[in-house]
Amino acid sequence: MPTAVAIRHVCFEDLGSFADVLAARGIDVRYLEAGVDDLANLDALAPDVLIVLGGPIGAYEEAIYPFLADELRLLERRLAAERPTLGLCLGAQLMARALGARVYPGPAKEIGWTPLALTDAGRASPVVHLDGTRTSMLHWHGDTFDLPDGATLLASTALCRHQAFSRGKTTLAFQCHPEARAATMERWFIGHASELAAARIPVPRLRAETAQHGAILETQGARCFADWLEGVGL
């Protein structure tokens, strides 16, 4: 049976709708909890697919969160071997850094629902399912990253140019959250309550936007992920 390992940084930022895609394809999923489970001794090449999930810390904060150093080394080995790897938000930032790019605070927090604008390369990739003409997109980040050498830009927003990139067929990274599942977003609103309050972002607005766009994103996000898995032989 094919295997997927998902590295999780906070309990409520999980695989979301992507879990259903993996189950439908007969791929066994194992979560590893960053900061708790031993990432240093994980065989970087063993899982058929590695998915690095989001979280509220910086990809450059290993002095505060030492486990990030192990996570970066894991990603460096896996990406060098061109094994299928997907990153979401913090996961994308860690992948960018593992590929030698700079990660740093963006011009402003981008939290809420905004459509993606795809590049020509994005429209020729599985990310076409996430084009702004087909769905809106959930964003929840303050940091951004430079595009790694050899990577292809797939999508942008007005506030954040580097929203999605690929590197060959086996590497895909999203600054945004195509995996978001509307039914569990209340966990995010609770878990990120302090951040939302500090940014003066009203939860009722996020809840209403999620009710409007969430179901469509679940469908389109699942199509994107399934197409990518098909492309890497899973």
Specify the number of helices: 7
What would you report as the Rg, rounded to the nearest angstrom?
A: 16 Å
**Global morphology:** globular
Q: How much strand?
A: 15-25%
Q: What do we call the CATH homologous superfamily? A: Class I glutamine amidotransferase (GATase) domain
Q: How many strands? A: 10
Q: Roughly what percent helix?
A: 25-40%
Number of domains: 1
The CATH C-level name is Alpha Beta
Distance between the termini: 11 Å
CATH topology: Rossmann fold
Q: From the structure provided, what is the oligomeric state, counting identical versus distinct chains?
A: single chain
Largest sheet composition: 8 strands, mixed
Output the strand order for the largest sheet: 2-1-3-4-10-9-8-6
Strand pairing plus helix content: what structural class? alpha/beta
CATH architecture annotation name: 3-Layer(aba) Sandwich
Relevant terms:
234 residues; two-stranded antiparallel ribbon; single chain; alpha/beta; 10 strands; 8-stranded mixed sheet; Rossmann fold
